[in-house]
Amino acid sequence: MNRFDRLADRVANAAASPYFFSACVLLVIIWLPSFLIMPEQVPGKVDTWQLVINTATTIITFLMVALLHNDQQRFEKATNQRLERIIEAVCGHDPVEDEGQKT
Fold first, then answer.
1. I want to staple 8 with a disulfide (CB 3.0 to 4.6 A). Which of 26, 29, 35, 70 is the partner?
2. How far apart are CA 87 and CA 85, in angstroms?
């Protein structure tokens, strides 16, 4: 397993934990009233804050989707390999070779 796959595993495990979900909920709770703290005297301050938050969440979401997709693909590949081994053991032939002979 290469470094990216190990990173994807760690991120997938961390994102699936209740602690990660709790941290996300806490961030949203902190963020919601934050626009009230921003002084209204400074024009554009609230808009800038919203832009920063929206940009950060978009970037984090994009990276999480990429890492979790990698983890899911590797899981599906491993599951298919296990199923092929089970079919081969039970039926006495390789389902992948049978598929190649049909075409």
1. 70
2. 5
What angle, rounded to 10 degrees, do the helices at 95-102 and 45-91 form? 90
Cα separation, 1 vs 4, whole angstroms: 8
Non-local (6+) Cβ contacts of 95 within 8 A are 84, 87, 88
15 vs 10, 11, 21, 80, 94, CA distance in Å?
9, 6, 7, 24, 37
pLDDT tens-digit map of 58-73: 998 888 888 888 888 8
**Largest distance between two CA atoms of the chain:** 78
Q: Tens digits of per-residue pLDDT, 19-64?
A: 988 988 898 888 777 766 766 655 656 677 778 888 888 998 888 8
Per-residue H/E/C for 9-42: HHHHHHHCCHHHHHHHHHHHHHHCCHHHHCCCCC
